[in-house]
């Protein structure tokens, strides 16, 4: 469904950023969300606000569904000769978009020291999936990390300190064993922990690999390390949570059903995106906590979520207007509104220094967990031919989780297949 934002005539025109025009510039903006809900409403409100203050710009905002839907629609539109000028697409799709020759670097429209200073204002962890070859192709916006959520009431029932989440892999097993509940017939009614393995299985699993001090792919996007012994060890731990320790449901665990399972008491802890933070705050019928993922050899988590991309085919005037809009919507007050509405991590440190965010964080401290975890974060798995490579890796994880293959064999096969795809990019 498309919602067109018509040109607004303001009594006093305010110009944000460095760009102004003598005549209207039309922009089309693809945004990965289904119509409705806090994300769509907030983007709508912010875009309306920008257009009202910049009557020389019109923005046609097209809500494009999932991230996968969005990148497919961008590629289709580009091949048809009618790409949008701007889109939010997964940060990990950067190499694919470059390979398809669909995007332009932002650098050309951010000249001089002022442009460099603005780019330097984003958290370095988010920029790892935004820059390559000395160029900036993505601007962080809808960004996240996975975090641990725990049910404080369940902790009390199990004799655990409700204010102290597990800090290590061993503690997560130990706590989970105390949190598991069974009925009179021996059937589990509450699991200790839930780590989803559908939807984005590689992403949450990357929490485990990062904590085991191994990187899944190089920064150039042309080499993976799927069969590294540390990756095998991390997958064995994930498999053991169900098989050896009996603290997590066996088989594939659904991403989308996980928050509901947490709300309904089917699991005492869950790993999911900080993008679920507002959802949990709104719907959890119990007191809950949020923590960094538990450490093993180190702390750590992958970053995730979407970046703004500038599409080829835009005129210089359209591109500069699009960059101006991106600078405005990632500025402190607008970014604060977005974070409070969704739970995504404000990608610039200056946002967290606003009175708005300070007050929000004082009222709801869990919002700071993902931000603080950025110090330990790494780039989300991203390569050329990213969807093919991650699909291979996800299949390997599924084969191990469902017991079809042992972790080492599954990952060795995945590495071989990834090598065959990526060899031409080295």
TrEMBL record:
Stored Pfam families: SBP_bac_8
Signal peptide limits: 1-24
Protein name: ABC transporter substrate-binding protein
Main localization of the protein described in the UniProt heading: periplasm
UniProt keyword annotations, A-Z: Periplasm, Signal
Keyword Signal in annotation: yes
Family to which this protein belongs: Belongs to the bacterial solute-binding protein 1 family.
InterPro entries, per database record: Bact_solute-bd_prot1 (IPR050490), SBP (IPR006059)
Listed PANTHER family: ABC TRANSPORTER SUBSTRATE-BINDING PROTEIN, ARABINOSE-BINDING PROTEIN-RELATED
GO cellular component: periplasmic space
Subcellular location as annotated: Periplasm
């Amino acid at each position: 469904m498309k919602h067109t934002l018509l040109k607004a005539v303001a009594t006093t025109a305010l110009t944000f950023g460095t760009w102004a025009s003598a005549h209207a510039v039309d922009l089309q903006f693809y945004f990965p969300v289904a119509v409705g809900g806090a994300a769509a409403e907030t983007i709508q409100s912010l875009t309306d606000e920008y257009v009202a203050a910049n009557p020389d710009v019109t923005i046609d905002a097209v809500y494009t569904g999932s991230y996968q839907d969005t990148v497919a629609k961008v590629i289709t539109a580009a091949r048809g000769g009618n790409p949008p000028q701007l889109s939010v697409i997964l940060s990990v799709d950067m190499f694919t978009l470059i390979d398809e020759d669909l995007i332009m670097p932002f650098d050309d429209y951010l000249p001089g020291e002022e442009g460099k200073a603005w780019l330097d204002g984003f958290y370095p962890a988010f920029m790892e999936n935004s820059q390559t070859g000395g160029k900036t192709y993505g601007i962080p916006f809808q960004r996240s990390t996975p975090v641990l959520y725990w049910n404080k009431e369940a902790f009390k029932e199990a004799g655990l300190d409700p204010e102290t989440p597990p800090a290590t892999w061993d503690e997560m097993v130990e706590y989970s064993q105390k949190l598991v509940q069974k009925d009179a017939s021996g059937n589990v009614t509450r699991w200790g922990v839930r780590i989803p393995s559908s939807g984005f299985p590689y992403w949450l699993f990357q929490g485990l690999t990062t904590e085991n001090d191994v990187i899944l792919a190089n920064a150039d996007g042309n080499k993976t390390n799927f069969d590294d012994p540390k990756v095998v060890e991390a997958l064995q731990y994930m498999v053991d949570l169900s098989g050896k320790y009996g603290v997590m449901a066996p088989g594939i665990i659904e991403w989308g059903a996980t928050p509901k399972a947490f709300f309904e008491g089917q699991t005492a802890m869950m790993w999911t995106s900080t993008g679920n933070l507002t959802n949990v705050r709104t719907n959890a019928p119990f007191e809950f906590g949020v923590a960094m993922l538990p450490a093993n050899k180190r702390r750590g988590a992958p970053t995730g979520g979407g970046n703004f991309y500038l599409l080829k085919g835009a005129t210089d005037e359209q591109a500069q207007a699009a960059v101006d809009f991106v600078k405005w919507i990632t500025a402190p007050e607008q970014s604060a509104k977005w974070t409070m509405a969704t739970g995504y991590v404000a990608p610039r440190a200056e946002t967290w220094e606003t009175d708005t965010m300070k007050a929000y964080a004082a009222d709801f401290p869990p919002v700071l967990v993902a931000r603080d975890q950025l110090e330990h974060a790494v780039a989300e798995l991203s390569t050329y031919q990213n969807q093919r490579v991650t699909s291979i890796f996800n299949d390997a994880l599924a084969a191990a989780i469902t017991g079809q293959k042992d972790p080492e064999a599954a990952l060795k096969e995945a590495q071989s297949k990834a090598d065959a795809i990526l060899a031409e990019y080295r």
